[in-house]
Amino acid sequence: MSKMKDFDNILDECLERVVRGETIAACLAAYPEHAKELEPLLQTASQTRGALAVTPRPEFRQTAAARFAAAAREMPAPEKRGFSLGLRPAWTTLIVVLIVLLAGGGTVGAAANSLPDSPLYSVKLAAESVRLTLAFSDEGKAELYASFADERVNEIVRMAAGGKVAEVERATERLDDQLLAMSGLTAPAKDSQASTLESGGFFGVESAPGASPPPETDTPPATTTPATTLPPVTITQVPLAAEPRAPSVLDRANLTDLEDEGGLLATVSRQALDNLQDLYDALASAPESVREALLAAIAVADNGYLQVIINLE
Amino acid sequence: MQEEEALIRRAQERDPVALTQLYEENFDRIYRYIVLKIGDRTEAEDMTQQVFLKVLQSISSYKWKGMPFSSWLYRIAHNQIVDYLRKKSRRATVPLDDSFVDGGGNPTHQAERKLQIEEIAIAARKLTKAQQEVISLRFAGELSIAEVSQAMGKSIGAVKALQHSAIAALRRVLAAGVEP
To answer: Per-domain residue ranges for chain B?
Structure first.
């Protein structure tokens, strides 16, 4: 173990000990050879922890707990995701299975292309719900979620073109739920690799562009890289400023790399790129009133797809 | 870990005791993580509630694979924050809302606390994004190194090294005197 790694471990141990109530002096006494270097770091950590010890207001805590408890009571039974008919799971399943079986030329068939502003839309969501119920493997469910997410983006784009903000927002919420569910299904076991959990600074402010360089560079990422059978896919991060991004910025080159590949990773990667492209195209021509909702949809799609792709890689 | 897995299974079955336990164990730190990221108490309160409502909606799809539950929870919080910042345009400076600073009813103490938080916040902005995230997760979110490792997708060794560099950088900035 290198000296630096050794010191990183000692620092972390001391931080934990201080959190558990030990004094800084006690920790320094345990590592006298590192005391000079440890002390200022532990003091800074202690100062930071103390400054950041913000607690929620008691009234808010109480209200939020009551709201959470009420929501928990109102939640449908387990195994039901997304749309709910408000019935017991067995009944829901039976009813919607029948709907699906009748789908050939009936209501479900007609509902398949319905949009959120259509009376048939709830049938479409119910059919999706039952298809999920009938998919037994995680991979099967993940593939379905990918297909539903694709559909949500289509709905967002179509609703945005019509200036329907509320419908765009609701479809975006469903997209978020479905990408999150897909992320849960595809999450690797322990020792997984990079995530995107690094945006947003303190109080919503990033390290300013052009500001003085960071005092020290980040550490390198994890030393082990998982074996992948597909070329890595990179989706350029969507800019967060409220400026539309030119479609050409999307990294279509990686799509070419995946042309001959199969599997969920390739499917999701293609879908992510296509859907981000579609959302940006929609943003370029959307009425001003839906731009904010579309930007939120882009954020959800970008984050959600990126996490799933990382999981699958 | 086995305890957490059992707890999550029970929560997935809508066991109110398990749901309450998950909520109680994580509520304060998720709130703290959010409020320190966005600096607005009202928004942070709303967002914290949304995070836990989202947990209720999505927990049935959560698959236990040995990862700390908190890393999933912080992912949800993170998505909410990103969405919020995107809407507000994150390049704008968000004024520090001092209403979330608890001064124990003492205006002088409240002003001192606000200064303390501001000093750290301004100094932290000089850090890299990864360093900021480690500070947020470790000191505001109170996550363990293992949890931060999962949340950030980095090895435990890398997170420890990042933590070291972040604290050292913060110290240098604080020592030099922070400038907004």
So the answer is: 1-91, 106-180
Among B47, B115, B147, B55, which Cα is nearest to A204's? B47
**What one-character DSSP code corresponds to residue A214?**
P
Contacts of B117 in chain A (CB under 8 A): 51-52, 54
> For A24-63, what is each residue's pLDDT tens digit?
999 999 999 999 999 999 999 999 888 888 888 888 888 8
User: Closest Cα partner for A47 from B159, B161, B170?
Assistant: B170
Q: Kindly report, residue by residue over A153-182, the tens digit of the pLDDT.
A: 999 999 999 888 888 988 988 888 888 888
Across the interface, whether the CB atoms of B165 and A217 are under 8 A apart is answered yes
CB contact under 8 A, A65 and B90: no
Select from A87, A80, A286, A267 the least CA-distant residue to A181: A80
Taking contacts as CB-CB distances below 8 angstroms, the residues of chain A near B168 are 41, 215-216
* Contact between chains at A195 and B151 (C-beta distance less than 8 A): yes
Residues of chain A found within 8 Å of residue B171, distances taken between Cβ atoms: 40-41, 44
CATH numeric code, B1-91: 1.10.1740.10
CATH number for the domain formed by residue range(s) B106-180: 1.10.10.10
Q: Do the domains B1-91 and B106-180 sit in the same CATH topology, yes or no?
A: no
